């Protein structure tokens, strides 16, 4: 029998896990989302301490790590879930670290007896990794009492309870509808240890996100365009169907379209690399979002 | 009489942890694991019943063990259950590894029949005692 060591250097352990890089990367890649990052750090610390306890021979029971991500559209729920799978894998909590992303139609069948095999199939694929159920509230449809969603929920609950060390389940959805979902399925709420709320992005954060999206595509904003984008974000927020970072991505796609047309229709033939990769203010100000002012 | 066949026929029955480790070995090599069961233990019986379709796209052994647990719940104690791993890297599924995980509580064994033929030749046949009963009733006790 090997004697357990008397002390453990948590910092060395942390450094050895290679997680410092991951968390720094997370901080760098994800703009804002302070509460989410804090919770990820807490979970990391808990798992490291738990591992240290196990090494020292203290009692340690793997914690429940099922999570629910609630927040408005485009606040980064899926992105964080993907990262979460990687982090939990590095911590040794899940064995494979792959993410299986499903929605209602991957779990619920069309006929009687069709749902259980379908749900079990998905669960088998997700074993050893993270199962991410997007828009989880669709699983439960109270208006139809013959809906098969309830069957999928029961199988999920059973596996979430019995095979906690094989599978981490992350539910995601809009806050208000998830609340209704949880209140009609109390079993779900109590089996999920971490309810993480994703806040909306501030205007400045959205511009930073736009910068990083454009850098990834090899574009950049001119100074005037950045100001225009700030205006755009402020206006767009007041309009219906605002989806945070997703709206920004779409706006940038349209701005690139307008930039292409502007360059194409210009008189002189030669364009520089500089011109090809710069989004100007006019590309953004041409957006429909600014139309409201003009008509007033 | 304890039937043995397949990759680990010379070993005692594998424990669940050992099965998990073997399955993970198969999955890490990209082989698809298949669960089969039968109540006809004759060594030349290659046509076992399939428990669902082979488990393609399952990265972790826990997924296979989940399916094995379901199969045991339905067939355990009255049937032989085996796992086979198929390698598709040549463009067709070829068997790489196969072992028995479960067996009925009691295995009555085989009768050896000798058929005397012309010129004092003898042809041998093995016949499982359990297979004398109709299919599905062989290990009901």
Written overview of the protein:
The complex is a heterodimer of chains A (296) and B (141). With 296 residues, chain A is α/β, with parallel strands linked by helices. Chain A contains 15 helices and seven strands. Chain A has helices at 10-16, 19-29, 34-55, 77-90, 104-107, 115-126, 149-162, 175-184, 186-191, 203-217, 223-238, 244-265, 273-276, 281-285, 291-295, and strands at 67-71, 99-102, 130-133, 168-173, 194-198, 220-221, 278-279. Chain A has a five-stranded parallel sheet, sandwiched between helices. A two-stranded parallel sheet of chain A has the order 6-7. In chain A, helix 6 runs parallel beside helix 7 (149-162), helix 10 packs across helix 11 and helix 10 crosses helix 12. The radius of gyration of chain A is 24 Å and the shape is globular. Chain B has 141 residues and is of the alpha+beta class. Chain B has a domain at 16-106: Ribulose 1,5 Bisphosphate Carboxylase/Oxygenase. Chain B is 20% helix and 28% strand. Chain B has two helices and six strands. In chain B, the strands form two sheets. A four-stranded antiparallel sheet of chain B has the order 2-1-3-4. In chain B, strands 5-6 form a two-stranded antiparallel sheet. In chain B, strand 3 and strand 4 form a beta hairpin. In chain B, helix 1 crosses helix 2 (61-75). Classes of the chains: A alpha/beta (296), B alpha+beta (141). The A-B interface holds A 95-96, 98, 117, 120, 123-129, 159, 163, 166-167 and B 52, 55, 57-64, 66-67, 70.
